[in-house]
Inverse folding.
């Protein structure tokens, strides 16, 4: 399975910037990539995530919305790797 975590973001989203700042070091250490998806590029994404960003999603569809810690996401990633 592809080791990538998706983060749904938006323009001028300071919470998204904070989320990415805590995610990048942890994911790099674990060998995962962070894929950024700007919800403003798709009306469907805006409808689903508009007031919830940032939201991270694993390849299996499991999601976690802000606020979250690097430790919480690390547990999700570790669980995904063992599935």
């Amino acid at each position: 399975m592809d080791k990538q975590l998706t983060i749904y973001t938006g323009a001028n989203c300071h919470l998204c910037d904070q989320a990415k700042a805590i995610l990048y070091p942890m994911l790099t250490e674990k060998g995962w990539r962070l894929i950024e998806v700007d919800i403003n590029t798709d009306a469907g994404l805006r409808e689903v995530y508009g007031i919830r960003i940032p939201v991270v999603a694993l390849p299996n569809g499991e999601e976690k919305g802000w606020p979250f810690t690097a430790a919480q996401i690390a547990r999700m990633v570790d669980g995904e790797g063992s599935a």
Remarks:
- DSSP finds three helices and four strands in the chain.
- The beta strands are 4-9, 33-38, 55-57, 63-65.
- The CA atoms of residues 7 and 80 lie 16 Å apart.
